[in-house]
Amino acid sequence: SAETDNAKNYQSRHERSQITLTLAKDAIDFISKLLVRDPDERMFAEDALKHDFIVKNFEKDDQKLRGRNK
Q1: How far is CA 23 from CA 5, 8, 14, 27, 43, in A?
Q2: pLDDT value at 69 more than 60
Q3: Separation between Cα atoms, residue 19 and residue 48, nearest integer Å
Q4: Residues contacting 27, CB < 8 A, separation 6+
Q5: Which of 3, 7, 12, 27 lies 20 to 30 angstroms, CA to CA, from 59?
Q6: In this structure, how many other beta carbons lie within 10 angstroms of the beta carbon of residue 53?
Q7: At what angle do helices 52-68 and 2-34 cross, to 10 degrees?
C-alpha cells in the first residue's frame, strides 16, 4: 500500500541521515585531532589509522587493495 511505501521511505531516509550524522561526527573528531597545533598533543599516524573514522570507512577497502597486491 502507499502507506507502507511511505513508511519504508521514511525509515530509509532516517537511517541514511543517522549514518551521515555518525560519519560527520567521526570525521570532525578525526580532523580536529589531526589539526592540533602542538605536535606533542596531536594524534600520531599510528593512532590515526586506528581511529573509528578510518576503521569504519576504509579498512575493508585497504584489505581489498592488499589482497590485490599479493
Answers
A1: 27, 22, 14, 6, 19
A2: no
A3: 21
A4: 53
A5: 12
A6: 19
A7: 90
**Residue length of the chain:** 70
Cell of 65: 587493495
pTM above 0.90, yes or no: no
Cα–Cα distance between 52 and 57 in angstroms, integer? 8
What does the pLDDT look like over 10-29, one tens digit per residue? 677 767 777 777 778 999 99
Closest Cα partner for 55 from 28, 26, 29? 26
Position 34: which residue type? Answer: L
